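Quick one: Porin from Saccharophagus degradans, structure tokens please.
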Amino acid sequence: MNTRKKLFFACGIGLAAASAQAEVTFNGFATLAGGSTLSDEDRLFGYDEKFDYENNSLLALQASSDLGDGLSATAQVIARGKDQWNAKLAWAYVGYELNDNIKLIAGRQRMPFYVFSDYLDVSYAYHWITPPEGSYALPFDSTNGIGAIITNQIGSADSTLHIVTGRIKEDLELDQLREADLSGMYSVAWTLNFSDFSLRAGYAQADLQYSIPEIEQALASPDSNPVKDLVGGFALAGYDITNELLANDDDNKGNFLGFGATYDNGNWLAIAEYTEITVDHTTLPAEQVSYYFTLGKRFGDFTPHITVGADENTPNSAFLDAMPTGNAQFEGLKQLARENFFETDIAVTDNEYYTLGMRWDFHSSAAFKVDYTTHTANHLDKTNNLLRFAISTVF
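--- reply ---
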């Protein structure tokens, strides 16, 4: 069993249970992290020049129980420093093993988006303090619904097909914190493990609705205001841009596509991952593409590593380009729409970054990590530098 698989097993994130008498098994994990940017002008991943001990810190407890005859129950609670250590129920589901190859899951469960989705919050399970933020950018990782895990042997490969369908109605961090509803959601991920090498592909889709109170209130106001005047100007030209400004109907389709490859022979570690998110008819980016490659080498208890990656966003402004040109006043309206709603900094992101890090397994259940990241936002012509430290443990 290679080191990566051992870590996954050690984290206890699987559905192992104590006994058939419905005894409850408890395990948990924690990350105590600190960091700061290297100048008073730098801002990156929630950090600034003042040393912060809460942004990536968390504590989690998981309870699992084998109810017998293939039935089990699992619950996981996580408290995060960035949320003022308020505990949140991350998982709460019942699993049923139909046979040796098929397991059904019902309840709040993890969506299988990424290579590290199964143990996304368990920093001890990977070499970084956190996986690359740009690639792992979805504002949610769990859903309420039903799922199935189907395992098989295909030649020399272990095949795992993970299917989940559900719905999310909660506040999500989009362009800012928004009340959101993701319905008609489904996700499919297929992983093939060949001893030291694995391949993964995933796809997900959902209908996205979310509230934008500042625009909704501006449009409903009886008084003149910039938003209302902008919409009115387009209306006079024969165009209704209300649906693009508001994301409160079911025409806003979101899609996720991901590919990953991992090599880990216990000595060398190499991972590559590509993710693509597309969203229609909103002020969010039309397309978000992220990718990274990481390489690490183990020297006993020490694992130095390097990661390079990029994040590229395309704005949702193509519908403006399709409108007629030539009228100076109308061109001015389109430019206002671009600058204020559709081509903001978040929508035209063009980032490059690299991370140098070291993991030290100073204990059988704990690791000390240090990561240094240089992050260049090409669209802003700005480079930020971030230094982070962490102790990650499982228990």
